[in-house]
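Notes to self after the call with IL:
- keep both proteins in one doc
- input above output, always
- annotate only the second one for now

Protein 1:
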Amino acid sequence: KNKKVEWSVTDITGKTGATISSGGKVKVPSNTSVDTSFRITAKALDGSGVTATKDVYVKAVTKTLSVNLTDADFDTKNSDSQAGIKKISFNPKNKMLKNIVLSSADISSNSFYDDQTVLTAETDNAIPVEWKTSNSKIVKVNGKEKDYNSKVTLTGLKSGKAVITCKTNDGSEKSVKINVTVINPVSFVSLNMDQSKQVYAIAKGYSMKNPVVLGEGYGKPGIRKVKWDYSIYLYNRVIDSSSGDTWNKTYSAELTQEIKKSNLVSLSDSGLLKVSKDWKDGIYRISNISGDGKGNNHAEINNAYVIRVTATATDGTGFSGYKDYVVTPPIKSVECAVMDKGTKVVLSGKTMDFFVAPKDEDGNQLFMGAYNLEIINTNPKCGGVAKTSIGFFGGFSMYVPTCDVYKRVSNGTVGYYYHVGYNYVKINFNDGSGKSVRYRIMRKVQ
């Protein structure tokens, strides 16, 4: 029960003049020689006679303390460099490390980065230092809340902020504080959620926005900025009713360099792609068309230029996504023999097929394989219109199904009836041209 101890100091090498208080606080005179040593003894006063000792070596008072990154693949002289997700900044006055950004997730198996970084403390007298984190739930040092070592590993645990303090233990009270921000990395980057699309269309002289989807598999990403770039590919496709549909894309460094030197393509920091109206080569057109009227058809797309837009995460993960565009002539007119004569009347229990033929300024029918159509039905219960297929030589087929059926009870009798009324159909051609058509379908009782 008696927890009091008796403190004493004994010189080991040289004369230190060290003293110790009843509370265990050691004091060494300023004129004590460096590299002398003494032993501290604590003796229990409960009659047990138990003692404990600690040897202390006298060093010069610490004048400087610095903390640096020691990752082999991290250039501490370049504040823009990255070793994985790690980002750093320095104090402009003393050039000391000030801020670090770490990841909250370890996906090093993907060869992008890990969630750790190593720090080393240096003093002018090579003494031990104490490391401590202000929030061990956010960042740990060597897997602990506190550690004594010249070198430690910081591990980010979850999104948040913490302050890492490195402090000398020689009484000089020298310390360095480093702000650590832990962020969630992106789990993927995507520009094209419809993976079935080979290419998308952009009309020359127009622009297209490229919305980015950042994966939140590790939580809400801490850095949402992406870096934009584009490159040029050659796109070839053979469409044959007997052998099927084959295609390939081949990267062209020469064309990429040539077009980047021109003013034909621009890509903004927000991902807005714009193609000049002066674009001439590599237009997406169907050629070598043949058919015998019996279903044996053949067509080709030869060396169409593909603009591959790429967005790359800037959090260090290296994740990127891309979307491929072919340059098309703008749609100038849209023909539909069935629908171009005002309202089309269709009986409620019947279906209907019709063909829509977009054409360019020269009257050529456009092959719709690259167009992303948006179809809007104001009253889908009356037989919403849907695209069924792309025309072999251009245009596309539409389909109007039968109307929805609803149940009605009258005088105890259950009846089933088709919906009737009007359905306004709007078709948007998402090639940047803003072209759209609108049709009116009236459904009558069969």
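Protein 2 (the one to annotate):
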Amino acid sequence: MERLPQTGITEDARTMTKQRTKIRRGEDQMNFAYRVGAIGLCTFAICTALQAQEVDGPGASVQGTRPQAARRPIVRPAAANRTVADNSDETGFAGSDRAAGAVESQGQSGTPTTLPPGTLDLGNGLSFILNYTSESAANPFGGIRQGTAYTGQVAFGIDADLGRLAGIEGGSLHTLVTQRHGRSLSNDVIGNNTSVQEIYGGGQTARITLLSYQQKLFDNRLDIEFGRLAGNINFLSSPVYCNFQNNATCGSPTFAFKNTNFTYYPISTWGAHAKAWFSDKVFFHAGAYEVNPNTQRLTDNGIDWSTRGATGVVLPLELGYTTNFANDLMPRNYGIGAVIDRSDYA
């Protein structure tokens, strides 16, 4: 039998084989592209997670998962040329050097913030604080008899940054006026000499509590302030003292005022203090404050700035170590000091 020609069939088979080969190559290329894309997506996800962990800290929650408990912010090592400006306005053993800080340190809030409650910052170098504090107390048993008492204080202060207002670098003005009113549970019904309402005392009247000029020098390493001051605004301060309203600790431990003539808020006398920072954590602090019994009269309003009646000065000294979250994972305060009383004590 004569064999039929197979040319057309052979060519069709070859063509189909080539097409299958191309299809397989295309599938291989697509599989390769999918694998590369998957690897790229995995790499992107890992990098994103690492970046989020670096920014938010270990244990940062991912969307769709249950958020973890709040953690303290990650503290980066301080730069070698970091100034001490970050600590200069802190309310620690370093004391307070602002009108707003003075109100804060004397019991307006148990948890200090960047700006104390009631502060209005105009953004041009002027900031104002208007604050009202009230304290009520009751004596259900014990003491001379039972009763209740209410006392309060209005405080209005201004801080002026003269660097922004007048070009005086490092200079500032501070003023604070207070008005106290009400009754003392300790005086009226308990009969003890340490008030259970720290906002009571110093005369239930209106007075100028603070009027001072402050100058910071040498990249904020030396801080000088003088004018009408109260010693315990600058010394004997801590943000933990006023978690309770009892005057045994808030705004400063009272033993210093019972053993010496150390001056106290809201009564102001002539005074000055200087604080030298050896680093962003270690400082030495010294001051001198007039002792004048006339300023403690119930009718005193803080306007009589004469030194008539002055009996001497008190000289507080302090060596301290203080940190915050900017330079320490666990902020702390340590201090050792003394009060030299060169006035009459009765």
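Annotation: The radius of gyration is 35 Å. Residues 7-56 form the longest helix (50 residues).
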